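QUALITY CONTROL LOG
STEP: pairwise intake check
CHECKER ROLE: data steward
CRITERIA: each record must contain a sequence immediately followed by its structure tokens, with no blank fields

ENTRY 1 OF 2
RESULT FIELD BELOW
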Amino acid sequence: MQKHQNALKTIKVASGQIQSVAKMIEEDRYCMDISMQIQATISLLKKAQATIIGDHLNTCVVESIEQNDANLKVEEINTLIKAILK
């Protein structure tokens, strides 16, 4: 399976929801309905981000540990921490 495939599927669903939100706005739909769709899209994007970070843990961080390179381990963990804190 290709790396990040699950995240890509989620992103594609979110992309469809964004299109739907744009159409709702163009149709002057009820504000709270639009807001709920935006929130659903945000949730999908967060899910995709969590998947990407999980993939990073299971590949890049594991590789740095397997290579027994202390500097690389620290660098990968710092990259992970920065991503989580954003």
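ENTRY 2 OF 2
RESULT FIELD BELOW
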Amino acid sequence: MNLVSLGQSDLRVTPICLGTMVFGEQVAQADAHAIMDRAVARGINFLDTAEMYAVPARKETCGATETIIGHWLRKNPGLRQKLVIATKVAGPSRGMPWVREGAGMTAADIVTSCENSLRRLGIETIDLYQIHWPERNTPMFGAMYYDPTKERTKTSIHEQLEAFGKLVKDGKVRYMGLSNETPYGLHEFVRLAEQHGLPRPATVQNAYCLLNRSVENGLDESLHRLDVSLLPYSPLGFGLLSGKYDESGLTGPGAPAAARIAKFESVRAGRWGREDALKAARRYSALARKYGLSPATMALAWCYQKWIARSTIIGVTSLAQLEEDLDAWNVKLPAELLAEIDQVRWEMRDPAI
């Protein structure tokens, strides 16, 4: 697995990134450490986390994931220099006052959150520090349409970039990135960064999978022309594309009770819990089996193969899942299957947008 560059930065990472958002909720610390041990043994050098993790978000577990990673790094002091560690500053509070107070995200919020993440992780510098969701009003996390009447921006993009500039100057951050971002937002961040000599986004971390290909509706061109890298998250559509809900549905008899969608009502209430998303997932599962593949392998191999996907973020709750996800890297999907996948998308669009 050759290393790839992220945007115009000098960060070199594996094309698979280990996502950690379930560490501290579904995955206990000892198991999380075992998963990270195995990922590194298999060659992975890229970890992604966030200040608000574990998920589903609640006050009691806010910051738990970074703390678990920090404990692991202290147990393995020689690893830090071999790893690229990414984390995220939360945007304005979305019903989570324990993460961010108020309707905005000030420069002071960004700096304070960074310092708290550094403390929990037990490191001196964050390699890639990302804005988890935009400070301004945007359609995200299942919302489809932009509504200008909901605009409540408190902090300009320029001010946010100045905060990142301070963090880079102070040696606390190497590069900045965005998440759950739109083409407009990406262009504004790049334009203002270049105009004022401030940190330029290296990456955008957005949902991208067979159930949500909205990145291909314009953001893909922006990423290419601006030389910013996509970090796809949820390549298995929160487990829908693993095939494990094909027979049972999300909560019916036989549904995996420990899985995120089955276990947490807050997840089912969102984009991944839509009936249309499950219907589409079943169509993709049938395609995978037609070609002799597991649904998870097909979904991951599809994402890994896409030119737009620079480093795909996988999330696992067990070593077995980790092995399957990493093994899918070596699977190349035939052109006939890719054409059938595109046909399903034409018919069912993006049900988990």
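INTAKE CHECK: passed for both entries
DESCRIPTIVE NOTE, ENTRY 2: The chain has a mean pLDDT of 96.
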